[in-house]
Amino acid sequence: MSATVLKANSRQAVGGGFWLSISSHGAGSASSKLKANPLRPEIFENEEAVGRAQLEELQRAAAGKVGDLVIILLGGRGAQAMYRLVGRMAQTSDLDNLLNRLHVFTQDALAPLRMDNALSFVRDFERLLGDAFFRKIKSFTPMRTDTDDPENELIRYTERLESLGGIDVFFLGLGPEPGAASHLAYIKPGSGATSTDIAGVIPISPSILEHHINKFKVGGSTVTDADEAECRAATQIMTLGPAAILGARRIVQSIVDADTAPTKRESYRRVLNAELSEDMMERAAQLDANPGLWLRLHPNVRSLVLPDVLAA
User: Fold this and answer.
1) Fewer CB near the last or first residue (10 Å), C or N of the chain?
2) 130 Cβ partners below 8 Å, 6+ apart?
3) Residue 2 lies in a domain
4) Which residues, in sequence order, are bridge partners of residue 108?
5) H-helix or E-strand containing 53?
6) Residue 143 sits in a domain of what CATH number?
7) Does some domain include residue 15?
8) Distance between CA atoms of 199 and 224, rounded to whole angstroms?
9) 210 has a pLDDT exceeding 90
10) Would you state the pLDDT for residue 25?
């Protein structure tokens, strides 16, 4: 499966935000034509085992492709074990042949926010992956949150992603939302995202704000009162959209924090068990109400979980 190269050519205003899209027509019918796939969780003993499996996915992708590799980093707990492992190995030459081929992108952010705020994904990636990693990779392209013009920032970001040939490995988690719904990247319920939307800026929701701050604290970040106050004053979410997710060559999902975010269990079960409608309008409504379901429309997903994610 090849990564799909995506180039936005339209802008859709939706609910106080906007999506940069491939086309302004046929969004609902586009998603209705995609085959719904089962999601089959793989259970691992601990977070470190998940991290090793994620690194193996990177190594497998690199072995199967000539040239550079484009990856999307996952924020929060889901990939921290991999980042620590890769960070240690980056201090040796063990991964140099892989790291020297990597183009690394972030997938979402809260804005406006200083890039050096401890609640910024970039700062957390720097903390976990370390200086040697960032010296050795080919490029790092974050979503910049210290801007008064998030639309032009997203245009810059998506054009850079498109120029490199699309996404090879997209690391994703699953965020809990009220009513056992879920967010994917930071595509929240009711944001109007469709299968043609590459990236967007949407209003912040209280559930995502609380989830964001809590996962950083639980994950070991040192968060000052000033950092948290600035984060709580953020008004927007910048995120990749369904078209970027569906266009990735490979998706690797990981859920390792059901102990500290127990509502993820019900949200994940709902994604596993949902029957996606064949009716165009009904399916569009399902996806908008529960964005975690976008994973079910991708044909090449690996879902890595700990035993407690599937606990009753």
Assistant:
1) C
2) 87, 90, 91
3) no
4) 239
5) helix 47-63
6) 3.40.50.1360
7) no
8) 30
9) no
10) 43
